[in-house]
Amino acid sequence: MTSYTGYLAIHKFESELKKELEIKGLKITLEKDRLFLVEGDHPQMIWAQMTAFDLRAIPITSIKDGAKKLKALGRNWGLFTVEHHRRAQLIQEELPKINQKPIPFRHPLPSLPMGFWTLWEPDLMMVASSTSSPFALGEMDFQEDKIMPPSRAYLKLWEFFTVYAPEEISGGTSLDVGSCPGGWTWVLRTLNFDKTISVDKAPIETRIMDLGQIDFRQESAFGLDPHDLGEIDWFCSDIICYPERLLNLVNRFRAAGTVKNFVCTIKYQKETDWEQTLKFLEIPNSRIVHLHHNKHEVTWFLKGALA
Ligand SMILES: C[S@@+](CC[C@H](N)C(=O)[O-])C[C@H]1O[C@@H](n2cnc3c(N)ncnc32)[C@H](O)[C@@H]1O
Q: I need a labelling partner for 275 at 20 to 30 A (CA). Which of 21, 150, 234, 300 fits?
């Protein structure tokens, strides 16, 4: 029986996913709406909000039969409907409820695997019991803080430190470049760093400065000399700039050998800059993800840069 890797594109970024699959030499065998199926076993893609592994066709004879077959394969199922919505919903209603409430910052991720299914034809399901995310369709939401953060940019860093870097932080220094109005600096202050160096050409909000232990420097991040800043545990960048400029900055800090970990937003203008994105990916042991809270931008990170 044919096995596929299913890629669910991020809404409005279907062409980015198609381009990425093309760059990786992967041919789409079947597609419906923003779901692309590639024959065989393949890795996650940056522009897929969820990747379904070993996706297979399963025929069904009735709603009850569909639900029974899904229940036999796992507990948690995220449904993506393109057609046959009503019939698919009736099957989904027969399945155990998924507890998908917004989670607090750094809350442990659900431990049970999350499956994926869609009703491809009225009597044919496409089913994967294993996916890239513990959240249905890769969608995660936080219990937001509507009081402290001065912008919603903090949600990106919340997601990053919850999903990709949940390890405990005990002291050290974080550097936040392109930090204003102060959302990321606020997040870094709530983590257990001894000090946060925060750099932007614009001024930071006073109430963020009032939190203390913040060394704010109103200057261009591109003029920073890594050797003046000492050892940095986390280099964080949300600067609005061309990807090439960010890559040069990152490489300058890597060459200095003073930074243990990096997390940076790569922001795009009208077009996705694939050339520079691929250059970021050439940095050994680094990874690029499109966070659920990213827009037309991606997140590059490198953990253990000095290891
Ligand atoms: C998207 S905002 C950052 C939002 C921030 N992460 C937060 O959570 O509030 C981008 C910032 O990059 C800053 N920026 C642009 N060029 C810069 C440069 N050369 N040096 C430092 N900051 C720069 C802008 O002033 C702007 O505040």
A: 234
